[in-house]
Amino acid sequence: MLCVLFSILKAISGEHFYEFGVIIFGYLAGTAWYSYKISRKKNFLIQGIASTIAVVGGFIGFFLLG
């Protein structure tokens, strides 16, 4: 919740807030990959891939635009 709050505050002030998205999606990617490793369900695989892509996009945005 703090990442969402800080993202909103940075967006209101007109700053980039990529780092908070990376934190959130990094957490989601980690839990999805771990859940996929245990259960081998496709939905966790898809969530892990999508979250990883979001993390990479956030890193690129943070370093190139931030």
- Separate helix tally: 3
**Contiguous uncertain segments of 5+ residues:** none
Mean pLDDT across all residues, rounded? 93
Output the helix-strand order: HHH
Helix content: over 70%
Distance between the termini: 22 Å
Total number of strands: 0
Proportion of β residues?
under 5%
Largest sheet: none
Judged by helices, strands and strand pairing, the structural class is mainly alpha
- Cα radius of gyration in angstroms: 14 Å
Globular, elongated, flat, extended or rod-shaped: what is the shape?
Answer: elongated
Explain the overall architecture:
The protein has 66 residues and is mostly helical. It has 3 helices and no strands. It has helices at residues 2-12, 18-39, 42-65. Helix 1 runs antiparallel to helix 2 (18-39) and helix 2 runs antiparallel to helix 3 (42-65). The chain is elongated, with a radius of gyration of 14 Å. The two termini are 22 Å apart. 18% of the residues are buried.
